[in-house]
Write a structure and sequence with these properties.
By secondary structure, the protein is α+β, with helices and mostly antiparallel strands. 31% of the residues lie in helices and 27% in strands.
Length: 105
């Protein structure tokens, strides 16, 4: 049996729907969080998109699940997740999975 020592990237993506009148605040919260997230160890990609229907879409790729777990415990994310529920109309729709296509070196 052969085992690979190459880390398997993990993708995380999801949608956030701002409450009416809260889009500007949600946009600022999420935009201000992009660069700190990109600086976390293991961050391969971190992107924020705004959909035509007003939802925000986040797409992240982490080198390993351990890197994502470490990011999830960061003080910055904890602060964001404390503030965000005041400004979104429903819990985030979040999805994750193991990346099966090769990640460029």
């Amino acid at each position: 049996m052969t085992t690979s020592t190459t880390p398997t990237p993990v993708a995380l993506y999801g949608f956030l729907t701002p409450k009416p009148g809260h889009a500007d605040h949600v946009r600022k919260l999420l935009t201000d969080f992009v660069e700190p997230s990109r600086s976390h160890e293991g961050s391969l990609q971190y992107h924020l998109h705004e959909q035509e229907d007003g939802r925000f879409f986040l797409y992240e790729v982490w080198r390993t699940q351990e890197d994502l777990d470490r990011h999830n415990q960061s003080p910055e994310l904890r602060a964001l997740m404390t503030e965000l529920p005041n400004h979104i109309s429903e819990p985030p729709q979040a999805y994750s999975g193991t990346m099966r296509s090769p990640y460029p070196a």
